[in-house]
Amino acid sequence: MVTIKIKENAEVIVENVKHDSFLLNGLYENLNIQFQSNNSYIGNETNLLDRSGKSVYMRNVVGKMKFVIRFRGTQCRSCVNVFNQYAERLKTMISDLGVESVVILLDSKNISDLQVIADKMNCEVYSIPKGNLPIELDNENHVIPFYFFTLSNLLMVQDCFIPADYLDVFWGIYIELIKREFYILDGNIS
User: Fold this and answer.
1) Angstrom distance (rounded) from CA 164 to CA 119
2) Structure pTM?
């Protein structure tokens, strides 16, 4: 069923994008950055800051596979607005996957920012400065307000995705695939 949706949606997107070089270039750039980031490893000693201001290692946060929401635009008003547009969908996603399976990584060192996002999204939130994750998506030269990925218990990055308004149809497909991955991981396959 997902394959059929992807095919149908892809055909519609191709028709819309093939006549618009800006959209085509944006799609190419996003896919390229996503692919470069997949299969990267985050170091065991990567430091995060928790809501109490205490330093914790990434390895102590992950445990089993996590769905990671990386928000890099806390200092950018338009980035915050874009993130807020996705907030309800993200809350649904967090609820569907289970709070224990999701972590948000902010680029803010402000403890009150961490608390506000934790209260709003109802999941664990940590701080790590922009550019401190060793993946292409976190490169400071990219203007990407937020993105998603899964992180294995070995701290391997997979399933990278950059949401984009002009390709909103992929959001639903991506979320379906992630939910299925976590569903299977939890042994709920028949």
Assistant:
1) 25
2) 0.80
Q: Which residue has the higher pLDDT, 28 or 162?
A: 162
Question: Does pLDDT of 190 surpass 60?
Answer: no
Number of other CB atoms surrounding residue 177 within 10 Å: 14
* Contact call for residues 151 and 65 (beta carbons, < 8 A): yes
The rounded percent of the chain whose pLDDT value lies above 90 is 23
For the cut 50, the answer to whether the pLDDT of residue 75 exceeds it is: yes
Q: Give the CATH class of 2-185.
A: alpha beta
| Helix/strand/coil for 111 | helix
Cβ 69 vs Cβ 90: under 8 Å:
yes
Q: What is the DSSP letter of 137?
A: G
How many other β-carbons are positioned within 10 Å of the β-carbon of residue 111?
14
Question: Domain segments of the chain: what residues?
Answer: 2-185
187 Rama sector, left if φ>0, alpha if ψ -120 to 50, beta otherwise: left
At residue 106, φ and ψ (nearest 5 deg) are -100, 160
Give me the chain's average pLDDT, please.
79
**Residue 178 structure tokens:** 């992630």
Contacts for 54-58: CB closer than 8 Å, 24+ residues apart:
56/126, 58/155
Exposure b/e, 76-103, CB count within 10 A at least 16 = b? eeebeebbeebeeebeebbeebeeebbb
